[in-house]
Design brief:
It is a single chain. The chain has about 290 residues and is mainly alpha-helical. About 40% of the residues are buried. Helix content is about 70%, strand content about 10%. The chain starts with a helix and ends with a strand. It contains eight helices and three strands. The longest helix has about 35 residues.
């Protein structure tokens, strides 16, 4: 399962790189040729997408490395480190786009209508829709922040380019200000999306606890054992996209050491069977 997960993430990363290089070339050329601020912003967005796909590829390669003497729990957190890089890059690019779009709005646009702009928009939407559907199918099978980040990015690009298309068509009615507003909207959208990736990655790297739903499932499993008199504590720490779980349980003080260890082993196996649990450690105390 793990091999398939890393293999599929690698395919998504490579496909994303190739698709976004293609879109960057055509959008950049047409955008600068027609002076469309929205299309230029969209081309910068594609440049950011290339970086995001590259980070997906590299982050997946590192995180797929097995545990070793220096990294006892594997290299899974590499996913979040590289997702944080994606978030930072998107945030930086958005400021440049925001500045250029506001400047164009205040001092006027030199946009010239071209049907090539319309064709470019349709090509972009088609390519991004394909990448979104392909990545979404992979994200449903394999729970990884890198796939989710790319899936959301492709979806956002479909929406962004739709607004670019609207701004281009409005120039037929001599409405040029919408092009600049679209550029501003795209830059804000990129910043917002980048910030979400950054915060999610930051939380994991800062050892955020497992979600409440999983914690409730763990409690249900533990409470199903009649010999467990009390659950003293449940602690968790992220290990890549999964969690290390440490549970302290209390049992009858007269229970034999053999039986208490057998009970702990059973709880560990049951909890570790959950999809997002990497390993479970159960500590037994007498009561």
């Amino acid at each position: 399962m793990e091999d398939k997960r890393f293999s599929q993430t690698k395919k998504v990363g490579i496909l994303g790189i190739l698709g976004n290089i293609f879109l960057l070339i055509i959008k950049g050329f047409i955008g600068f040729a027609t002076k469309s601020q929205a299309m230029i912003a969209d081309s910068f967005n594609s440049a950011g997408d290339i970086f995001a796909s590259l980070m997906t590829f590299i982050g997946n390669k590192i995180s797929s490395a097995p545990q070793d003497e220096d990294h006892n729990f594997g290299h899974g957190k590499a996913e979040y480190i590289f997702s944080m890089f994606i978030g930072i890059s998107m945030f930086v690019v958005s400021f440049k786009l925001l500045y250029d779009s506001i400047r164009t709005l205040l001092f006027g646009s030199e946009l010239t209508f071209s049907w090539l702009l319309v064709v470019t928009c349709f090509i972009t939407i088609g390519v991004k829709l394909f990448l979104y559907l392909y990545t979404r199918s992979s994200a449903k099978k394999f729970n990884t922040i890198l796939l989710k980040a790319n899936m959301n990015d492709h979806r956002n690009d479909c929406i962004v380019t739709t607004f670019t298309l609207i701004s281009v068509l409005l120039t037929l009615k001599d409405i040029y200000w919408f092009d600049s507003l679209t550029g501003i909207g795209i830059s804000i959208w990129i910043a917002y999306t980048g910030m979400k990736f950054f915060i999610e990655s930051f939380n994991v790297l800062m050892d955020i606890s497992v979600d409440d739903k999983t914690k409730d499932l763990i409690l249900d499993i533990v409470n199903s054992y009649q010999d467990i008199k009390e659950v003293k504590s449940i602690s968790s720490s992220p290990v890549g996209y999964k969690y290390m779980i440490v549970i302290v349980i209390c049992v009858d003080g007269n229970m034999s050491t053999f039986d208490s260890h057998a009970l702990a082993d059973s709880v560990e196996l049951s909890v570790t069977a959950l999809d997002n649990v990497y390993r479970t450690i159960v500590h037994v105390e007498p009561i």
